[in-house]
Amino acid sequence: MMSQKNLTSRRRSSVGVDVGPIKIGGGAPVVVQSMTNTDTVDVVATTEQVAQLARAGSELVRITVNSADAAKAVPGIRQRLDDIGCHVPLVGDFHFNGHKLLSSYPECAQSLAKFRINPGNVGKGKKRDEQFTTLIETACKYDKPIRIGVNWGSLDQEMLARIMDENASSSDPKDATYVMREALITSALESAAKAEEIGLLRNRIVLSCKVSGVQDLIMVYRELAARCDYALHLGLTEAGMGSKGIVASTAALSILLQEGVGDTIRISLTPEPGGSRSREVIVAQEILQTMGLRAFVPLVAACPGCGRTTSTYFQELAESIQGYVREEMIVWREQYEGVENMTLAVMGCVVNGPGESKHANVGISLPGSGESPVAPVYVDGEKTVTLKGDNIAAEFRQIVENYVQEKYPRKAG
């Protein structure tokens, strides 16, 4: 198994971009970000969702700024977040009218830590150049970084037509898929070069080229990474709902991250009706943590179950413990050093239970079908106690809490 150190050493070299206190690229850990789906005009709802995403572990949160009322609301959202002690940087997502909004509402521009623009919908012809210039000059004026985010669903049609013509006249024309990929990359690189000409520094630019197909995303980012040293934002666009979105995002991003490509990630999941927006943050964290790139919360190992585990008790306990450590991490991460590296195991029978439990910092081996109704607990490989009765879950949670307090040093202050 490749160590975290080896994976980190393989990362592509990129120019670091400061977004408030968060650094993207330049050797910094891969940053997790997300986006609200509230109406930005609703200051209360947007503030609540930003705070929820930040508590879940989103290190940047993007909000839609699509109207004058939304732009007016941004300073109030920033103030409310600061008032409750939530200082997560806000990224403004601008399409079509961003040049007008940023020019007309300077308080909005100042309240945001970063702008996201799409070169495919900045404007057309001469207006495109003028409006793009306005966006870049505003970023320079307020010293804000910009993500130039190209999407395959909204490519600059003039640029796409140019590349299609060049390909058609080539002695070795490529297929339509190649042309689409090349158009994405060209749009991003030409826009970044234009931004630098206008005056935006290289360390204020992040690039992305988003598509919804796994293989297309991998090919596009491999090529983009080879042709520049800008910091790169990874993510499938319209990844989908539920397991489809999770699997597709994991398949694409894991390959690129393993190759050292990517400085910040967002998992664009469609929430189920009534589902939590925070799920996309958890998935992003779990991708990075299971790959050994970062640690966010203690990992809980649990067996899948079989005919030896007809009781659902170990499943219920595993779910309970996983939820418990995520909730407690809000407090633990503020109080203790290194607790995110803790490992836990909740196993369902004697076959692998004791062995897996011994490999975790804290593990419990629950009885399978026909086994004695007792549950040995192992702490750092040593059996410490055997639990039984109706309070196993509460007693095991207390053992975990005691382990955290005893094993991890408290942070200064």
UniProtKB/TrEMBL annotation:
Pathway per the UniProt entry: Isoprenoid biosynthesis; isopentenyl diphosphate biosynthesis via DXP pathway; isopentenyl diphosphate from 1-deoxy-D-xylulose 5-phosphate: step 5/6
Top-level taxon in the UniProt lineage: Bacteria
EC number: 1.17.7.3
Phylogenetic lineage: Bacteria, Pseudomonadati, Pseudomonadota, Betaproteobacteria, Nitrosomonadales
Source organism per UniProt: Nitrosomonas aestuarii
Domain IspG TIM-barrel: 17-284
Function text: Converts 2C-methyl-D-erythritol 2,4-cyclodiphosphate (ME-2,4cPP) into 1-hydroxy-2-methyl-2-(E)-butenyl 4-diphosphate.
Catalytic activity: (2E)-4-hydroxy-3-methylbut-2-enyl diphosphate + oxidized [flavodoxin] + H2O + 2 H(+) = 2-C-methyl-D-erythritol 2,4-cyclic diphosphate + reduced [flavodoxin]
Gene name linked to the record: ispG
Cofactors, names only: [4Fe-4S] cluster
Protein name in UniProt: 4-hydroxy-3-methylbut-2-en-1-yl diphosphate synthase (flavodoxin)
The record's free-text note on cofactor binding: Binds 1 [4Fe-4S] cluster.
Coiled coil (residue ranges): none
NCBIfam families: ispG_gcpE, PRK00366.1
Binding sites annotated in the UniProt record for [4Fe-4S] cluster: C303, C306, C349, E356
GO biological process, one term: isopentenyl diphosphate biosynthetic process, methylerythritol 4-phosphate pathway
Record-linked PANTHER family: 4-HYDROXY-3-METHYLBUT-2-EN-1-YL DIPHOSPHATE SYNTHASE (PTHR30454), 4-HYDROXY-3-METHYLBUT-2-EN-1-YL DIPHOSPHATE SYNTHASE (FERREDOXIN), CHLOROPLASTIC (PTHR30454:SF0)
EC primary class: oxidoreductase
